[in-house]
Amino acid sequence: MYTAVPERTPPAVTPWEATEKRLWMSDTALLMIDMQNSYLADDGVRDALGWPPIWRLAETITACAELLAAARERQAPVIYSRSVGSAAGPLGDNPRFARLMQHRAGRLPQVSAEQQEWKRQIIDAVAPEPGDVVLDKTQASFFDYTELEPLLRNLAVSRLIVAGLQTNVCVEATVRAGLAHNFEVAVPDDAVSTDGPDLHHAALDSMRVLYTEIAPWRELLAPDAPWDRAFTTPDYGRNPHYWTETPSNTER
């Protein structure tokens, strides 16, 4: 499903500011991944499915809101993904996920249709604005079975900033797909999160090895940002002790 919010009026800036920001962001799009009310819901569904709370959720929402404002100021395209169920119902689900739902069916609380619709919507603090685009997706990667790639090609985008939730799931899947489609990709490490710091940092390291640019969002949007630390920094920018065996990473 495609939702286009009506065009917005560009912010008032001086000609010099407008030219510099437009040149810098003219080939860059911000992908905001799955920032939906389902992460705020206290209906017990995540607990029933064995999904822990999102680590630093409030801070991540704040960072995403600031990143969105900065991207819009620079007139970069902003494209949201919204995770939804398959139109084919359970027949369209991944078999493993279908088995999980079947196995946990007796534990899942009843959720009204109105609550389900609310959970599907984007969180108010990071809600789309006029000129943004919202695309529904049914898979982890934003590229799978959506109109994202033709949209990006038509916008002449070659660089992606991928933010949102969750670092090791839909963010990483989208990053890997973007790289496979020959986009240059960056991830703001302060505007993504998942259910625990270990998974978050491990996913960031996995993406670093793929030459994804990982940095705080303000650094990624700086006019002089080289986006080259992944291949100019020892160990791809990872902690140099990442390979050291310790009881915490060898005893499972």
UniProtKB/TrEMBL annotation:
<keyword id="KW-0378">Hydrolase</keyword>
<dbReference type="Pfam" id="PF00857">
    <property type="entry name" value="Isochorismatase"/>
</dbReference>
<feature type="domain" description="Isochorismatase-like">
    <location>
        <begin position="28"/>
        <end position="212"/>
    </location>
</feature>
<dbReference type="InterPro" id="IPR050272">
    <property type="entry name" value="Isochorismatase-like_hydrls"/>
</dbReference>
<dbReference type="GO" id="GO:0016787">
    <property type="term" value="F:hydrolase activity"/>
</dbReference>
<dbReference type="InterPro" id="IPR000868">
    <property type="entry name" value="Isochorismatase-like_dom"/>
</dbReference>
<protein>
    <submittedName>
        <fullName>Ureidoacrylate peracid hydrolase</fullName>
    </submittedName>
</protein>
<dbReference type="InterPro" id="IPR036380">
    <property type="entry name" value="Isochorismatase-like_sf"/>
</dbReference>
